[in-house]
Amino acid sequence: MPEPIAVVGAALLDDLSRPRLLLAARRTEPSHLAGGWELPGGKVDPGETELEALHRELREELGVDVVVGEEVTGPRPDGRWVLSERYAIRVWTAQVSGGQVSLLEDHDELRWLAAGELTSVPWLPADLPIVEAVGRLLGP
Ligand SMILES: Nc1nc2c([nH]c(=O)n2[C@H]2C[C@H](O)[C@@H](COP(=O)(O)OP(=O)(O)OP(=O)(O)O)O2)c(=O)[nH]1
Protein backbone atom coordinates (compact mmCIF):
# COMPACT_ATOMS: atom_id res chain seq x y z
CA MET A 1 0.00 0.00 0.00
CA PRO A 2 1.47 3.39 -0.92
CA GLU A 3 1.76 5.97 1.83
CA PRO A 4 -1.40 8.11 1.83
CA ILE A 5 -1.22 11.76 0.82
CA ALA A 6 -0.90 13.90 3.96
CA VAL A 7 -3.81 16.17 4.80
CA VAL A 8 -4.11 18.24 7.97
CA GLY A 9 -7.25 19.64 9.55
CA ALA A 10 -8.26 21.85 12.43
CA ALA A 11 -10.94 21.13 14.97
CA LEU A 12 -11.37 24.86 15.53
CA LEU A 13 -12.91 25.39 18.96
CA ASP A 14 -14.36 28.52 20.53
CA ASP A 15 -12.07 28.13 23.56
CA LEU A 16 -9.31 25.55 23.95
CA SER A 17 -9.53 25.49 27.74
CA ARG A 18 -13.31 25.24 27.93
CA PRO A 19 -14.56 24.20 24.47
CA ARG A 20 -18.27 24.31 23.70
CA LEU A 21 -18.36 24.94 19.93
CA LEU A 22 -16.71 23.37 16.87
CA LEU A 23 -16.40 25.13 13.51
CA ALA A 24 -17.82 23.24 10.54
CA ALA A 25 -17.15 24.40 6.96
CA ARG A 26 -19.11 23.51 3.83
CA ARG A 27 -16.96 22.61 0.81
CA THR A 28 -17.51 24.18 -2.58
CA GLU A 29 -15.38 21.81 -4.67
CA PRO A 30 -14.64 19.37 -6.25
CA SER A 31 -18.16 18.50 -7.33
CA HIS A 32 -18.26 15.10 -5.62
CA LEU A 33 -17.41 16.70 -2.27
CA ALA A 34 -19.28 20.00 -2.71
CA GLY A 35 -21.98 20.54 -0.10
CA GLY A 36 -20.26 18.22 2.37
CA TRP A 37 -19.11 19.68 5.69
CA GLU A 38 -15.55 19.27 6.88
CA LEU A 39 -12.81 20.56 9.11
CA PRO A 40 -10.84 23.41 7.53
CA GLY A 41 -7.42 22.33 6.32
CA GLY A 42 -5.81 20.77 3.28
CA LYS A 43 -2.83 19.01 1.80
CA VAL A 44 0.67 19.40 3.15
CA ASP A 45 2.89 21.02 0.52
CA PRO A 46 6.38 19.69 -0.24
CA GLY A 47 8.96 21.13 2.16
CA GLU A 48 6.36 22.12 4.71
CA THR A 49 5.73 20.56 8.12
CA GLU A 50 2.24 19.43 8.95
CA LEU A 51 1.73 22.24 11.45
CA GLU A 52 3.06 24.82 8.97
CA ALA A 53 0.49 23.48 6.51
CA LEU A 54 -2.25 23.77 9.11
CA HIS A 55 -1.44 27.43 9.83
CA ARG A 56 -1.17 28.24 6.10
CA GLU A 57 -4.47 26.57 5.22
CA LEU A 58 -6.31 28.37 8.02
CA ARG A 59 -4.93 31.71 6.88
CA GLU A 60 -5.84 30.98 3.24
CA GLU A 61 -9.29 29.53 3.87
CA LEU A 62 -10.50 31.50 6.87
CA GLY A 63 -8.11 34.44 7.24
CA VAL A 64 -7.16 33.58 10.80
CA ASP A 65 -4.11 32.84 12.90
CA VAL A 66 -4.57 30.13 15.48
CA VAL A 67 -3.09 28.63 18.59
CA VAL A 68 -2.87 24.87 18.15
CA GLY A 69 -3.94 22.61 21.00
CA GLU A 70 -3.82 18.84 21.24
CA GLU A 71 -3.88 16.31 18.46
CA VAL A 72 -7.16 14.46 18.02
CA THR A 73 -5.63 11.11 17.26
CA GLY A 74 -7.16 8.67 14.84
CA PRO A 75 -7.02 4.89 14.65
CA ARG A 76 -3.93 4.58 12.43
CA PRO A 77 -0.67 3.82 14.25
CA ASP A 78 0.61 7.24 13.18
CA GLY A 79 -2.45 8.96 14.66
CA ARG A 80 -4.00 9.78 11.33
CA TRP A 81 -7.58 9.22 10.22
CA VAL A 82 -8.25 7.51 6.90
CA LEU A 83 -10.15 9.76 4.49
CA SER A 84 -10.07 7.60 1.38
CA GLU A 85 -7.78 5.21 -0.47
CA ARG A 86 -5.46 8.13 -1.23
CA TYR A 87 -5.70 10.50 1.70
CA ALA A 88 -5.20 10.43 5.46
CA ILE A 89 -5.62 13.38 7.82
CA ARG A 90 -4.00 14.50 11.09
CA VAL A 91 -6.26 16.69 13.18
CA TRP A 92 -5.46 19.16 15.95
CA THR A 93 -7.68 21.30 18.11
CA ALA A 94 -7.11 25.00 17.63
CA GLN A 95 -8.43 28.39 18.68
CA VAL A 96 -8.41 31.67 16.78
CA SER A 97 -5.69 34.01 18.00
CA GLY A 98 -5.86 36.68 15.31
CA GLY A 99 -8.24 37.85 12.59
CA GLN A 100 -11.92 37.20 11.99
CA VAL A 101 -13.18 33.88 10.69
CA SER A 102 -14.18 34.64 7.07
CA LEU A 103 -15.17 32.72 3.95
CA LEU A 104 -12.12 33.26 1.75
CA GLU A 105 -11.53 30.00 -0.13
CA ASP A 106 -12.94 26.49 -0.57
CA HIS A 107 -16.08 26.96 1.57
CA ASP A 108 -19.40 28.75 1.18
CA GLU A 109 -20.80 28.42 4.68
CA LEU A 110 -19.43 28.17 8.20
CA ARG A 111 -21.23 27.14 11.36
CA TRP A 112 -20.20 26.95 15.00
CA LEU A 113 -21.83 23.80 16.35
CA ALA A 114 -22.47 22.84 19.98
CA ALA A 115 -22.22 19.21 21.11
CA GLY A 116 -25.94 18.63 20.56
CA GLU A 117 -25.79 20.12 17.04
CA LEU A 118 -22.91 18.13 15.59
CA THR A 119 -25.18 15.91 13.52
CA SER A 120 -27.16 18.86 12.13
CA VAL A 121 -24.95 19.17 9.04
CA PRO A 122 -24.09 16.50 6.45
CA TRP A 123 -20.41 15.93 7.20
CA LEU A 124 -18.24 14.26 4.59
CA PRO A 125 -18.55 10.58 5.50
CA ALA A 126 -14.88 10.25 6.44
CA ASP A 127 -15.25 13.08 8.94
CA LEU A 128 -17.97 11.42 11.02
CA PRO A 129 -15.67 9.47 13.37
CA ILE A 130 -13.42 12.53 13.73
CA VAL A 131 -16.35 14.73 14.65
CA GLU A 132 -17.53 12.13 17.13
CA ALA A 133 -14.11 12.20 18.81
CA VAL A 134 -14.07 16.01 18.88
CA GLY A 135 -17.60 15.98 20.27
CA ARG A 136 -16.30 14.18 23.35
CA LEU A 137 -14.13 17.23 24.07
CA LEU A 138 -17.05 19.67 24.06
CA GLY A 139 -18.68 20.71 27.28
CA PRO A 140 -22.28 21.85 27.83
N1 LIG B 1 -9.35 19.66 4.36
C1 LIG B 1 -10.11 18.59 4.56
N2 LIG B 1 -10.16 17.64 3.59
C2 LIG B 1 -10.94 16.59 3.81
C3 LIG B 1 -11.70 16.44 4.99
N3 LIG B 1 -12.42 15.27 4.90
C4 LIG B 1 -12.12 14.73 3.71
O1 LIG B 1 -12.57 13.68 3.27
N4 LIG B 1 -11.21 15.54 3.03
C5 LIG B 1 -10.62 15.25 1.72
C6 LIG B 1 -11.03 16.19 0.65
C7 LIG B 1 -9.84 16.16 -0.29
O2 LIG B 1 -9.93 15.01 -1.12
C8 LIG B 1 -8.67 15.99 0.64
C9 LIG B 1 -8.05 17.28 1.11
O3 LIG B 1 -7.77 18.08 0.09
P1 LIG B 1 -8.09 19.67 0.03
O4 LIG B 1 -8.79 19.89 -1.25
O5 LIG B 1 -8.77 20.15 1.29
O6 LIG B 1 -6.60 20.20 0.02
P2 LIG B 1 -6.04 21.57 -0.53
O7 LIG B 1 -6.81 22.71 0.12
O8 LIG B 1 -4.58 21.52 -0.32
O9 LIG B 1 -6.47 21.51 -2.04
P3 LIG B 1 -5.77 21.88 -3.41
O10 LIG B 1 -4.91 23.07 -3.14
O11 LIG B 1 -5.03 20.66 -3.83
O12 LIG B 1 -6.98 22.17 -4.28
O13 LIG B 1 -9.20 15.34 1.80
C10 LIG B 1 -11.62 17.42 6.00
O14 LIG B 1 -12.24 17.35 7.07
N5 LIG B 1 -10.82 18.48 5.74
From TrEMBL:
<dbReference type="GO" id="GO:0008413">
    <property type="term" value="F:8-oxo-7,8-dihydroguanosine triphosphate pyrophosphatase activity"/>
</dbReference>
<dbReference type="GO" id="GO:0006281">
    <property type="term" value="P:DNA repair"/>
</dbReference>
<dbReference type="GO" id="GO:0035539">
    <property type="term" value="F:8-oxo-7,8-dihydrodeoxyguanosine triphosphate pyrophosphatase activity"/>
</dbReference>
<dbReference type="InterPro" id="IPR020084">
    <property type="entry name" value="NUDIX_hydrolase_CS"/>
</dbReference>
<dbReference type="InterPro" id="IPR000086">
    <property type="entry name" value="NUDIX_hydrolase_dom"/>
</dbReference>
<feature type="domain" description="Nudix hydrolase">
    <location>
        <begin position="3"/>
        <end position="138"/>
    </location>
</feature>
<protein>
    <recommendedName>
        <fullName>8-oxo-dGTP diphosphatase</fullName>
        <ecNumber>3.6.1.55</ecNumber>
    </recommendedName>
</protein>
<keyword id="KW-0460">Magnesium</keyword>
<dbReference type="InterPro" id="IPR020476">
    <property type="entry name" value="Nudix_hydrolase"/>
</dbReference>
<dbReference type="GO" id="GO:0044715">
    <property type="term" value="F:8-oxo-dGDP phosphatase activity"/>
</dbReference>
<dbReference type="GO" id="GO:0046872">
    <property type="term" value="F:metal ion binding"/>
</dbReference>
<keyword id="KW-0234">DNA repair</keyword>
<dbReference type="GO" id="GO:0044716">
    <property type="term" value="F:8-oxo-GDP phosphatase activity"/>
</dbReference>
<keyword id="KW-0515">Mutator protein</keyword>
<comment type="similarity">
    <text>Belongs to the Nudix hydrolase family.</text>
</comment>
<dbReference type="InterPro" id="IPR015797">
    <property type="entry name" value="NUDIX_hydrolase-like_dom_sf"/>
</dbReference>
<keyword id="KW-0479">Metal-binding</keyword>
<dbReference type="Pfam" id="PF00293">
    <property type="entry name" value="NUDIX"/>
</dbReference>
<keyword id="KW-0227">DNA damage</keyword>
<keyword id="KW-0378">Hydrolase</keyword>
<keyword id="KW-0235">DNA replication</keyword>
<dbReference type="InterPro" id="IPR047127">
    <property type="entry name" value="MutT-like"/>
</dbReference>
<dbReference type="GO" id="GO:0006260">
    <property type="term" value="P:DNA replication"/>
</dbReference>
